[in-house]
Design a protein that fits this description.
Number of helices of chain A: 15
Radius of gyration of chain B: 25 Å
Largest sheet of chain B: 6 strands, antiparallel
Number of helices of chain B: 7
Bound molecules: zinc ion
Largest interface: A-B, 50 and 68 residues
Distance between the termini of chain A: 25 Å
Order of helices and strands of chain B: EEHEEEEEEEEEEEHHEEEEHHHH
Distance between the termini of chain B: 47 Å
Shape of chain B: globular
Structural class of chain B: alpha+beta
Radius of gyration of chain A: 20 Å
Oligomer: heterodimer
Strand content of chain A: 15-25%
Helix content of chain B: 10-25%
Number of strands of chain B: 17
Largest sheet of chain A: 10 strands, mixed
Number of domains of chain B: 2
Helix content of chain A: 25-40%
Strand content of chain B: 25-35%
Strand order of the largest sheet of chain A: 3-2-4-7-1-8-13-12-10-11
């Protein structure tokens, strides 16, 4: 296998709705930003991987076909990846494999979503139809007819976790403090959807319930319209491009993925409801491939559907003990951005988590959310001289899809 | 009908303002497709439900049981044959179940409802869980009812059409003793219409809160009469809602765009709601939410009809604040 490096990244502004642009233009914006960042022309790109989650959102069954020409990828191989919330991660994995295998030297990985054109004529708002469109990710025989939604389904896992590990994720004050910290981080993201918002722990605790006792309105990720791109290159090509740009290469050190069974159950190959095994296995595989342990990692960009799941995932990936994930706050493991400023790395024993603001404050254009996370990880690694970071993705009913990528900064310490 | 009649938009293109202040266009359209959806290998499961039986598939090699039978070839044993097994009409709730308050478009009007995974093949060492609706005979679902490990009784809808909604589960503790072993048990044999009011004791400690609540409600009624937005909120609504609290009772009378309040539970009410602590309503008046009180389990409601009027009441404090303060 060949070494693979990231040599460019670019994202669009994250907005609740873009009436100025269709997803065609959003993908072009992201492609342009990525290639400009890498000082690479479209001719130098060998192939493209698209991350687009849901045909119903895009309102086109082969959405990537319309993009080929307008993003300059004509006469090149192009493959679309769609894997629920983990679409971005799996698209990145496909792009990385393409370079690692020697099939291509330079691969563009671009993902995004146009999500909020969906409209509910009865309430005259978008949200119920957006939720319904996502709910169509469930099967039509057993789960969808029951009224399953994305937040209920992830919440189910958190409630089962709480059954087995009481007094951890159920402390609303701990969750509210995490949100307050994420909000401050999101304020620093020049493309972040909620960069102008201030949310305090008190406001979180007073916001409306979505699902008691773990989910208030201000604990939930957003729907975002936008797109994000990454440029992956082989070692030789990465070094050449890096000289051109003057930006250090971010090496892909480890990639881990694991999907659990769709069916929850007891024993065998069934999904245990109280764990997110997909996250655990994916992270363990990524660490093994990279030759690192969680202790080596200083920066995490985590796919946070909402805060209770953020905490469970941090436990599954080995940063804090399962059952004691509240130590993120209690033991000050989550670094305070006010202390770090723009250029400092977290202190020993601390972690910078979701400096982008995550999916709750930064942006969540589903097909490219994990590219958004990787864009942020790269930016922060370079600015703070952080050697190792981890990017996480999750998706599908009951969080059964999991992915993790360990990144290394060239020359980082 | 598969599609609701109001589930449509006029054919039109309209203007919409961008973040840049310029005008853009949007057009009404849809991506709806109609299906005659194949049940295929799942047909057996749904035929059984129509006959008021619950079946699963059991591996002839390892003995694991799948319910519903997602497959008839065991994926753990090189796709060995799985045989049909009849399952008991009782199960254990595998995890504390979430209550859906804000459903997706297709389920608006059904909330709040409860879904969860039921461990049915408890005798098998390895088994899948059945995703199901959970219902209680004690009012609308609230926290503390569907918690991990409770025993459940399978109930069949009176009319069955071959859908996962042909069945649901009720806590065994709510099933009358003489019906607990009955298989199949039908919805019509249980009383969902008239849930028993939760018993609350008169509590001296809540008396002062009740007294100030009655004063606040009086002021609120007067404010509604002066607030145009509140009157719009109440337009066309007519309810008499009895309220029991640990500090004392009262009745909301909503009619003619007005909100009246009288002490005690009136003789004629549409329904009665119960909160042990009168502060639930004081919090509401101070820009809180009765819906939240329900979600937190502090306000008991007998039915979905009672739940549906809460958003109207929840708008009142905000409307008053905007019009008068
Ligand atoms: Zn088997």
């Amino acid at each position: 296998m060949r070494r693979v490096g990231i040599v460019g990244a670019g994202i669009t502004d994250c907005r609740s709705r873009w009436v100025e642009a269709t997803y065609w233009d959003l993908f072009q914006q992201a492609t342009k930003a990525t290639l400009e960042d890498a000082k690479v022309s479209t001719e130098e790109v060998d192939s493209v991987v698209y991350g687009i989650y849901n045909d119903i959102f895009e309102h086109q069954a082969i959405p990537e076909s319309s993009l080929t020409g307008i993003i300059g990828m004509h006469h090149k191989p192009g493959v679309r990846v769609t894997s629920g919330g983990a679409t971005g991660f799996y698209a990145m994995r496909a792009a990385i494999m393409e370079v690692a295998s020697g099939y291509s030297d330079v691969v563009l990985c671009v993902g995004g979503e146009k999500a909020t054109d969906c409209f509910d004529p009865i309430s005259q708002t978008q949200t119920p139809m957006v939720i319904d469109t996502i709910a169509k990710s469930w099967d039509p025989f057993f789960e969808y007819p029951l009224g399953a939604t994305a937040s209920d389904s992830y919440m189910q896992v958190c409630m089962a976790y709480n059954d087995n590990h009481p007094n951890d994720i159920n402390d609303p004050v701990v969750r509210a403090k995490i949100i307050e910290m994420l909000c401050r981080q999101g304020n620093r993201n020049p493309f972040g959807q909620r960069r102008d918002e201030t949310v305090t722990a008190e406001q979180v605790l007073e916001s409306r319930w979505i699902i008691a006792p773990f989910l208030r309105l201000l604990e939930v990720c957003m729907y975002t319209e936008g797109a994000g791109g990454l440029l992956f290159a082989s070692e030789e090509k990465a070094k050449e491009i890096s000289k051109r740009t003057g930006s250090p290469i971010i090496w892909v050190k480890g990639v881990g993925a694991a999907n659990e069974s769709y069916n929850p159950g007891r024993g065998g190959s069934y999904k245990p409801l109280h764990r997110i095994e997909s996250d655990r296995i994916a992270a363990e595989r990524a660490y093994k491939m990279a030759g690192v342990t969680p202790k080596d990692i200083k920066l995490v960009e985590l796919h946070d559907a909402f805060i209770a799941q953020f905490m469970v995932t941090m436990g599954e990936m080995g940063f804090v003990p399962i059952g004691k994930t509240r130590s993120l706050i209690d033991d000050h493991i989550m670094a305070d951005i006010r202390e770090l400023g723009d250029n400092d790395a977290p202190k020993k024993g601390q972690l910078l988590i979701n400096p982008s603001g995550g999916l709750i404050f930064g942006g969540h254009f589903v097909g490219g959310s994990n590219m958004f996370s990787t864009w942020s990880a790269r930016r922060e690694m370079i600015a703070r001289n952080i050697r190792y970071s981890l990017v996480h993705g999750t998706g599908a009913i009951n969080a059964v899809f999991g992915g993790a990528v360990v990144l290394e900064l060239e020359g980082g310490v | 009908m598969v599609l609701k009649p109001e589930f449509n938009l006029p054919k039109e293109t309209s203007e919409v303002t961008g973040k840049d202040g310029k005008q853009y266009l949007q057009f009404n359209t849809s991506m709806a497709t109609l299906y005659k959806q194949t049940y295929g290998e799942h047909s057996r499961f749904f035929f059984a439900l129509k006959e008021a039986r619950l079946i699963g598939s059991k591996c002839t090699k390892c003995g694991q049981v799948m319910v519903p039978a997602a497959t008839w070839k065991c994926p753990m044993c090189g796709f060995a044959e799985m045989k049909e097994v009849t399952l008991p009409h009782r199960g254990i709730l595998a995890q504390t179940a979430p209550i859906t308050i804000f459903p997706s478009q297709s389920f608006i009007g059904q909330a709040p409802f409860c879904r969860g995974y039921v461990d049915v093949a408890t005798d098998a060492k390895v088994a899948s869980f059945l995703p199901s609706r959970l219902k209680t005979t004690t009012g609308i679902p609230r926290p503390g009812v569907f918690v991990k490990g409770i025993e459940l009784k399978l109930v069949f809808a009176d009319e069955r059409v071959g859908s996962i909604l042909d069945i649901f589960w009720v806590p065994m503790s709510e099933i009358p003793a003489k019906l607990r072993k009955k298989e199949p048990l039908f919805e019509r044999e249980l009383d969902f219409e008239s849930p028993k009011l939760p018993k609350i004791k008169a509590n001296k400690e809540f008396k002062p809160a009740y007294t100030s609540l009655m004063q606040l409600l009086k002021e609120m009624s007067a404010n509604v009469a002066r607030s145009k937005r509140s009157q719009q909120n109440l337009a066309g609504k007519k309810y008499r809602v009895g309220v029991k609290t640990g500090g004392g009772d009262f009745t909301f009378i909503i009619e003619k765009n007005k909100m009246g309040v009288v002490a005690g539970v009136a003789k004629k009410t549409d329904f009665i709601i119960v909160a042990e602590d009168p502060n639930v309503f004081i919090k509401w008046i101070n820009d809180g939410s009765l819906t939240d009180a329900v979600v937190e389990g502090n306000l008991w409601l007998p039915s979905r009809e009672a739940f549906i009027i809460l958003p109207t009441l929840d708008r009142l404090p905000r409307s008053i604040r905007r019009d008068l303060h």
